[in-house]
Each structure stands twice: as C-alpha cells, then as structure tokens.
Amino acid sequence: MRRWSSWAPLLCSVLIVTPVLGQENTVLFPRFALSGGGYLGDFGTVVRVDPHVEGLQGTTIDLEKNLGLQSTRTLSRFELDWRPFRRHELGLSYFRTERTGLRTIDRQIVFEDTTFPISASVRSAFNIDFWEASYTYWARQGARDGLGINFGVTGLQFHGELSASNNSSGSTIALLDETVSSDVPVPVIGLEGRYQFTDRVVASARASLLPSVSIRDYTGEAYVAKASIEYRPVRRLGLGVGYNYFNLNGIAEKPNFHADLGMTISGFEGFVRLVFGR
User: Fold this and answer.
1) What is the pLDDT of residues 135-192, one digit of tens each?
2) Could you tell me what percent of the chain has a pLDDT over 90?
3) What is the value of pTM for the model shown?
4) In angstroms, rounded to a whole number, what is the distance separating the alpha carbons of residues 28 and 205?
5) Residues ≥6 apart with Cβ < 8 Å to 136
6) Are the CB atoms for 110 and 59 separated by under 8 Å?
7) Residue 176: its pLDDT value, please?
8) What is the domain partition of the chain in residue ranges?
9) Cβ neighbours of residue 26 under 8 Å, at least 6 residues apart?
10) Domain 35-276 sits in which CATH superfamily?
11) Alpha-carbon gap, residue 270 to 27, rounded angstroms
12) What letter does residue 185 receive in the DSSP assignment?
C-alpha cells in the first residue's frame, strides 16, 4: 500500500499533464486555411537574345529602363494550406503577372538577328505564371513557435513578345514571341518558421531555393522568400501584411534560340486569410 501511495501522486500528475502536452496550437497550425491577397510588385528584368552567329552576342536589355516595361504592377496571389496530420502540412500557391511597355529607344539594340536603330519605337509584353505545391514537416511545434522543413515542386511559364516600328519608314518587325514552360515539376527546398505574439497576432517567414531549375527550354536557379504578420480580429478571419521576394536567373535554350534572363519581383502585400479547424 505504501508503494502505491508513493507512486499515486506521480501517476496523477502524468494523467493531468499528458493532455496538456498533447494539445495542438491551432492558432499557429490551423487544420485548413485559404488566403488571397494583392501587392504592388517592383520589377527588375534583364534579358539578352543572341544572334544565330556563333560567337556573337545580342544586346543586354533592361526591359524596364530601356523598353519602358512597367516597373510596378499589382499582383494577385492565392494560397491554400491543409494540415491532415499534426506535423504534416500541404500547401498550394499561385500568382501571375502581365506587363506591357512602349518606348522610343535611345541606343542601337541587337536582338536575335535584328538590329534596331536609335529612335525606333519598341512595344513589349512580358508575362509569367508561377505555381507551387509544397509539403512542410513541422519538426518543432512549441507553445508559441514552430520550425518546419519545406519540400515542394514548382512550375514556371514565361511568355514574351517584342516588336518595333521604324519611325522613318513605318515598317514593323516582330522580334520575339516565345513561350517557355515546365515539362515536369521542379524541386524546391526551404525552411519556414512561425511565432505567436498573442492569441490574435501571428508572424511567419519562409525561404525557398530552386537549386537546379531544369524545365524544357530553361536552366538556372531561383530564390523565393516571404515574411508576414497577421492579426485575427475574429476566430476564423485573419488580416495581414507581408513582404514577398522572387529572384530568377538562367538561360533559355531552344533550337536556333538562345537567351539569358534575370528577373526580380519584390513588394509588400496585403491579404485576407480564412482559418478553419481550430
């Protein structure tokens, strides 16, 4: 009896503490969340398309500065997150950009096999679609913080059009009308962290790397990062602001076509998030 009496307080403590340890922080880790937002993205795009003559290079063009492509543009982004098990989370996100420009150039430009003289009027369009499906394993789920390892796949598609009018003759020459898209998903790896300041305020940050992008006509690398802070005025609704960063550098290679591409998109975002499963 004495032996049981000595163990009884410890067993009772275990029975009381175990449910507390097993509770999930559904403020940081909801079962299901759907968010949508928009942000004014700042763009920087540099491209070079080489002539079909070995050893010759085209002109490196800053599309915003040299061709008047819009340097700022409001983007729409959508994201879906689902956590079927305690430490396992699935996510899907998508955004698209469409930009156009018109500029009378102040220098000669060699683009593929065409040379455009000073004072030619150049019209441009450049679009990108980006989607990502991810899996996050939450290695740490603390009372007010979490750290996860993220694995995923992403798809990229670029479409560019470029034409120019010779102001002296009025003739128009098509320079570029190319679409480059992924044949298979490209692997992504990254880290994600979350921190709960109060029951209503949550912060998160994530950084991902595409270490070896290989899509049908494109090879290179890309970096994606985002950070946000969210306020929950009511149980299932979050209002937040965040910052997004996307950087891409690589080479597009097709039969009789070679181009170098560098692109950066960054900007502050406002979003609305619906949360379920608390």
Assistant:
1) 999 999 999 999 999 988 877 777 878 788 776 665 666 566 666 665 556 778 999 9
2) 34
3) 0.78
4) 12
5) 88, 89, 90, 91, 148, 149, 150, 151, 192
6) yes
7) 61
8) 35-276
9) 277, 278
10) OMPT-like (2.40.128.90)
11) 20
12) P
